[in-house]
């Protein structure tokens, strides 16, 4: 067993391509899941690879390196459409977690309650995936395929997220509902990006809900209903929430989750209307 | 060619370059603690849930348990000890933590202070929200966080400088410095580097038959020193706490009774055990039908957990006074309800830990505990050894709250030390701590209360079942205590209360702050509000009208002619009750969805054992060099016994408290001060300290032929007695040194006067009660079912506050626990066995607390003092429930009141 900490992406991909390694970044999901006796295979620490870090402006959008931490995202200067993502960054666990936990790790861990996924869905995030043989991109909505399941093939890793420029003047928001103030796994969460035209009517809408289905979901029907309407006037119906399939667990009942999500969305829409 | 990190990881630790060779997967916390000796880094969960291990890496706070050690390469790592030693800001923070009483047990203190230093480097004068954001990742179970916030914000110190430090002085804790400097040594901090490591093999099923494979072959593996099972227990394979109920095996034999029960231990070299996977242990499990709740356990055909306990009934407690049926029949108004509470986990941040070794043929165990002498007595039976051959040395305890009254690691450690002849250590993982140690009993209670039109209680009937889990532990105490207390601190002439402990295949429920009384108070105090409303009487007035007074009998027929302080506690809440209710009405008139409510509730608690002897002994001596030494055996689990007992002793002796040298509860040198439970230490051990101080004073004064008004002054090699300008020196060198190295010595014992209860629970269960009343202001988001506590006002009759600062600390911490019990805490075996699924309040959940100290002196208490430790959370949960009802009209009867449950109840009550 080895601990690899390469400084270049190509080295990392070579190591990964040979198999038998677990990629590791902030460790915030890796260690809690570690069973007694320690890891059963080698570790590939990707945090020393410069290409995986940082937030940069690119033609037509933004690139966030997979090993970028939540603290870096929270501090970044980004357009208002990213406010939801930055708010989510400040609600991942607590400061200690945000300082090392990464956006790439968050999506690859594929928890239904991953705080990063709903805001990234509202930003139409694409995942850049690399392997020794080349890179590919796919939409985040297709990347997370189930509880703890992602569309990575052997030898592949996530290297970045690409976020196309949202419409100018679009504004993002995020709301997490939990049973305590910090260090809390969401009962439900809602991310939203809306743009209103000069008359206050929505002409761009993205709404995503987490912790209410195996994979966080966009609410397409509600987004459609919003187009052309003032946000505060749109009534959130149960039909709007059809994409969600919440479960009963220790954090709350399925019925509560739907009820609460509807209320949270309604409030966020009202606030968007006031804004 | 792969470029790998060299096997050596080099980084800077507190300013000095260090190099380690960690295993693949080794956590930075382990490297720091075990390879570099930085045991100021505390491990509470190994999952980033508690933040105790917080260190700074390149200035940023991170959980050292979540960072591969290799990631520290080339970086700057700072820990509490280094920060306090080198950085003025951290040294200042340490001073503030001491001055605010912000460190109780001290186990979270490194995480708190390191996080605070990072904040203050960036934001020198943070506001409260910034402090919460910065410290939100560190859990504390003792303080209720408010004093930590005060310390980080640099608010005016709460402690007072006081030269004498006697009763009434709000001095800093005498043992606080090591806690804020990173030098405190807890259960896992004391083992020698070469100690063997123990890993416990536990049942993955609530009930299972099991068969071992080839244990001899397993034990012969390289690096394995021993395998222990029931066959290796030298004495009786049973422990427990209550005579007649010693029913828990150290290792299960043939069949387990709860998930997480131990069946074996593996003892081996540290490097072997670091790689040991319990799944490799040769044991086969055969799951059997189990019962997880009380109704199943009581049902026909339910598997019987213990022979002779038919119907899975462990035992019951009963109190009857007057004729409750007749009283309820003549009542003008009757209310009734069924209330249910959950398993509550103690969730101290220090998991059970310790080490043991054989020294000169004797076995010595160093571990965190609330009851060193009880541990010794248990080991005597389990090891089958004479007690003279056993030594128990308590380490600092990182919280207790009741669960560290029972042994946990101690039998494993001592059996392993005796078997291997080597030092051995064991620290529970968070999950095994949660699976295997005791819990608060879930209660299922039916209560009926009547009152007459004049607002007087007329009959109270209580029937409660308490899920005591697989073994008795302190269950019998809960069954006995509840009926004595279920009336609340009120005059209830006609009363009948019965509490029954039921076995299930759940972890043993035992002692937890209040021993069942907080559960009973939930039912009784909730129904009091309903009763007051039906009568059209103000809820506070109704309580005051029925409050127990001096000269009135309790439900046990006990009459206190003095010291009953509940009326004063309730009256003290009146100003807040009136202003907060008025303020809530104004707020509520303007808002539809978020509603504000104000709730009150009261509580009482008898200090010490129920009608049973529970003596404490305190010893003190003067060495030939003039140093006064106080042997203080009351386990200080953060609450402050080391300080309070010393203050009492110092006053009785007549010297400044700082003149004392303290020796802890090492059973070789310190007499038994009893267990730290039942709110007994300030009262019982405090009295022993008062007597010991007075006896030593009398001897000194007699040798100086001085009167009682004389002043004792200690000095080097001499004690001076000053009286009316006359100075009399006692030449200590001229006195003979006794076998313990003292030239003067006193040792005194106090046992509270109680009398047995008869078959109806009538008698004198306690020599004193303490009293409490809480007011809670909170807001309910009726559309989301969330509850946000806004403020607590807590009135506590402590008789005499020996140390008002520590009183506040107890109150704030107790309220935080009561709040957790009311709103979020529910232990479900197999489901909430960690600190991210089992939630306790964080710093952002805890509102301000105003503590009103009421001093209604008690004739039995030292300088009038009463116990406090349990009282602090008894009224909290019902005050919260009553505030929720005040805000919404909905009476919640099942704890915890999660958003999901509250929203469902609100919907049922037509809140949209």
TrEMBL record, chain A:
Tell whether Transcription is among the UniProt keywords: no
User: What are this entry's molecular-function GO terms?
Assistant: FAD binding; oxidoreductase activity
Q: Which residues form the signal peptide?
A: none
**Keyword NAD annotated:** no
Residue stretches making up the FAD-binding PCMH-type domain: 1-168
- Quote the InterPro entries the UniProt record gives: CO_DH_flav_C (IPR005107), CO_DH_flav_C_dom_sf (IPR036683), Diverse_Substr_Oxidored (IPR051312), FAD-bd_PCMH (IPR016166), FAD-bd_PCMH-like_sf (IPR036318), FAD-bd_PCMH_sub1 (IPR016167), FAD-bd_PCMH_sub2 (IPR016169), Mopterin_DH_FAD-bd (IPR002346)
Could you tell me the keywords of this UniProt record? FAD, Flavoprotein, Oxidoreductase
Determine the domain of life of the protein's source: Bacteria
Q: What is this protein called?
A: Xanthine dehydrogenase family protein subunit M
Q: List the source organism.
A: Marimonas arenosa
Automatic annotation (TrEMBL), chain B:
The keyword Ligase belongs to this UniProt entry's keyword annotation? no
- Pfam families to which the protein is assigned, alphabetical: Ald_Xan_dh_C, Fer2, Fer2_2, MoCoBD_1, MoCoBD_2
Keyword Metal-binding on this protein?
yes
- Indicate the segments forming the 2Fe-2S ferredoxin-type domain, all copies: 7-83
Q: List, alphabetically, the SUPFAM superfamilies matched.
A: 2Fe-2S ferredoxin-like (SSF54292), CO dehydrogenase ISP C-domain like (SSF47741), CO dehydrogenase molybdoprotein N-domain-like (SSF54665), Molybdenum cofactor-binding domain (SSF56003)
Q: Name one GO molecular function term.
A: 2 iron, 2 sulfur cluster binding
Sorted keywords for this record are:
Iron, Metal-binding, Oxidoreductase
| Family under the similarity heading | Belongs to the xanthine dehydrogenase family.
Q: What is this protein called?
A: Molybdopterin-dependent oxidoreductase
Question: Which organism does this sequence originate in?
Answer: Marimonas arenosa
